[in-house]
Amino acid sequence: MEQIILCCFDAVRMLVLLWPLAVLSIWHPGLPKWVDRMIHLDSTILMNLTSLLYLDRSFRTRQQHLQRVSAVVKTEISSDTMEVDITLSPRVNSVKPSKTVAITDQATALAQAGVPVAAGSLILILQQCAVIRLAAGEPDFDTPAVIAEENGISYTPDQILVSNGAKQSILQAVLAVCSPGDEVLIPAPFWVSYPEMARLADATPVILPTPISENFLLDPKLLESKLSEKSRLLILCSPSNPTGSVYPRKLLEQIAKIVARHPRLLVLSDEIYEHIIYAPATHTSFASLPGMWDRTLTVNGFSKAFAMTGWRLGYLAGPKHFVAACGKIQSQSTSGASSISQKAAVAALGLGYAGGEAVSTMVKAFRERRDFLVKSFGELEGVKISEPQGAFYLFLDFSFYYGSTVDGFGAITGSESLCRYLLDKAQVALVPGDAFGDDTCIRISYAASLDTLQAAFERIKEALASIKPTVHV
Ligand SMILES: Cc1ncc(COP(=O)(O)O)c(C=O)c1O
Asked: What residues does the Aminotransferase class I/classII large domain cover (predicted)?
């Protein structure tokens, strides 16, 4: 129906508006200026009608390489060349790329090579060789220099893939590089989806526990001891969900040295909380470390720092070979990220370095909330804390209370039953640590107002007071 309306409209405007003007312009020397104005008017009307009918549905949807969202990571590769295993999962070869997406890419390539793109019917008549883009559109993003400079890394457009959220970016990366039998090394506590994504890729998650006494940071020696021929991917998340830990640069350098000795090993660096970080902690992009650019798949997104969760926009940056494989998988599951979200993301990037004033105001508020919670829970008996340096989560060790019983509720055997008890008794919803691979802890998100957090703390405190802890010696 929409197409019929557009076709009719096109025919009418050709007959009534544009064709006579085109003919007249040949005869009258002063007319081209008017023709120009009419073309402008014509394309404006057409644009408005199109957007009314299609609501920008196909126009500008395929922003496959968010040419401008991220950056081009120029690695400071050390003088010695290191090998990287660039094999892909057999599932990548078994999938045919989407033809519609491929054609759109060809049209883009032609347009980028200077072949004009037709905008309206008259222009098409005047520009016989123009590419008519009936496949999908390309939005007009400019690479934000701020991002490129922020992390000391840079990427060309074909080294970036924009998806409907960082979750999609991560899954596609895992599917692209992991084959059945491969191992994915995941420090715990981990973001809930990592091990499941490894399983979806027929790989085996290998969990590397990190204790609260070490601020939940991976011990390089433990990593080294777990590496084998099967190790394909190490997933790092800094700042971390659920712990808020931030990997110091020096520790990342030690990890990088170990990674460099294993040609098969790639790193997926989930940096979605990079802007939510509390000084003096600083963020280091793993890909910026010497020799790591070639083997790092960096994931980021707009859900956290820009509070744009519902907009569903994330991206992957890495060597073209891997990004193309992820693009192939994506081309058969979704045609691209929402154009509306991409526009919003461009606006977010326009806020300036690290999200500018808006994000720093948010980070200031998070910091105030973190300080309140760390101080308050620090005063409670038996609760162990590692002060988060980033993100907006507190991962508290409540194992002191395990093994206790509460009248009218029963036994508290672990994080799951403690969370159930706190929901029952205090009406506060928290996430059990076992979901993140550490049953000793419970995750508290402080993405809530200080007033709400104060009320929650009082209720938790009261509920915990009713538990009779087992005698600890
Ligand atoms: C560590 C981490 N990575 C990725 C994601 C997914 O983000 P998105 O909303 O962009 O899919 C989340 C969301 O909670 C997260 O916490």
From this structure: 150-460
Which residue type is seen at 446? Y
Q: Are 415 and 441 in contact (CB under 8 A)?
A: yes
Closest CA to 233 of 295, 322, 300, 161: 295
Which of 196, 241, 274, 283 to probe ligand 1 with, by most ligand atoms within 8 A of CB? 241
**pTM score, two decimals?**
0.76
Please tell me whether residues 214 and 298 are part of one structural domain.
Answer: yes
- Which pLDDT value is given to residue 203? 98
Q: Is 371 found in the same domain as 315? A: no
DSSP assignment of 390-435: BTTEEEEE-GGGTTEEETTTEEE-SHHHHHHHHHHHH----EEGGG
pLDDT at 22 over 50: no
**356 vs 6, higher pLDDT:** 356
Render pLDDT for 392-422 as a digit per residue (tens, 0 to 9).
Answer: 999 999 999 999 999 999 999 999 999 999 9
**Residues of the domain holding 30:** 2-54
Residue 436 CA to ligand 1 center (angstroms) comes to 14
Q: How far is CA 313 from the centre of its chain?
A: 7
